[in-house]
Design a protein that fits this description.
This protein is mainly α. It folds into 2 domains: about 120 residues; about 50 residues, Winged helix-like DNA-binding domain superfamily/Winged helix DNA-binding domain (Arc Repressor Mutant, subunit A). Helices cover about 75% and strands about 0% of the residues.
Length: about 180
C-alpha cells in the first residue's frame, strides 16, 4: 500500500470514529488518537491487507477501529458508575451511513471496488471541509439527525445549519466532480 492509501484510510477511519464518539466525550477521547492506534496495526498487517480486495480491506480496518474504540471507551469509563459502561460500538452502521450518501449502489465485484474507492474519496473530501461544515454534514447526512437536531447540537440556528449544509454539499460536489 502506498502513502496515498494510508492518507485515504486515515480520513475514512476518522470519519467513522467521529460518528461513534458522542460529542460530550470528545474532550476526553480524541477520535484521531484512536485512528492513530489503528493505522500502525494495519501497517503491521500490510502483507495480509495487500492480499485482500478493497471491500475486505475496509472491513478489516473497520473491525480494528471498532476494537480500539471499544477499548478506549472502556478505559474512559473504567471504575465509574456510569450507565454508558455498557458500550456498543457499531462501525458497520457508521460506514453504512457513508454508503447511503453515495447514489449508486453496485453489486458486481468491480462495482463494489468502485464504491469502496468512492467511499475513500468521500472521506478525504469531508475531512477537507471547514470544521462547522464537516460537523453539519456528518451529523445530518451520516448520522441521520434532522436539521433542527444538528442546530441544537452545534448551538446554531436552523438557518445557519442549513447554510452550512448547502455550502458543505457545494464544496463536496466541487471536490468530487459529480
Amino acid at each position: 500500500m502506498t502513502s496515498h492509501d494510508w492518507e485515504r484510510y486515515h480520513a475514512y477511519l476518522l470519519l467513522i470514529a467521529r460518528q461513534q464518539i458522542a460529542p460530550d466525550d470528545r474532550g476526553r477521547l480524541d477520535p484521531s488518537g484512536v485512528v492513530q492506534q489503528t493505522l500502525p496495526e494495519a501497517h503491521h498487517a500490510v502483507d495480509l491487507l495487500d492480499d485482500l480486495d478493497s471491500a475486505r480491506r475496509l472491513v478489516w480496518l473497520r473491525t480494528a477501529l471498532g476494537r480500539n474504540l471499544h477499548d478506549e471507551m472502556r478505559k474512559l469509563l473504567a471504575d465509574k458508575r456510569d450507565a454508558r459502561r455498557e458500550i456498543h460500538i457499531d462501525v458497520e452502521a457508521s460506514s453504512s451511513g457513508l454508503e447511503r450518501f453515495l447514489i449508486a449502489q453496485h453489486s458486481s465485484p468491480s462495482g463494489r471496488a468502485d464504491r469502496n474507492e468512492q467511499l475513500l474519496r468521500l472521506a478525504v473530501a469531508v475531512s477537507a471541509l471547514a470544521e462547522a461544515q464537516r460537523q453539519a454534514i456528518e451529523s445530518h447526512y451520516f448520522r441521520g439527525r434532522s436539521v433542527a437536531e444538528v442546530a441544537e447540537e452545534m448551538g446554531r440556528s436552523v438557518a445557519a445549519v442549513a447554510g452550512l449544509l448547502k455550502r458543505g454539499l457545494k464544496e463536496l460536489r466541487s471536490q468530487l466532480g459529480d
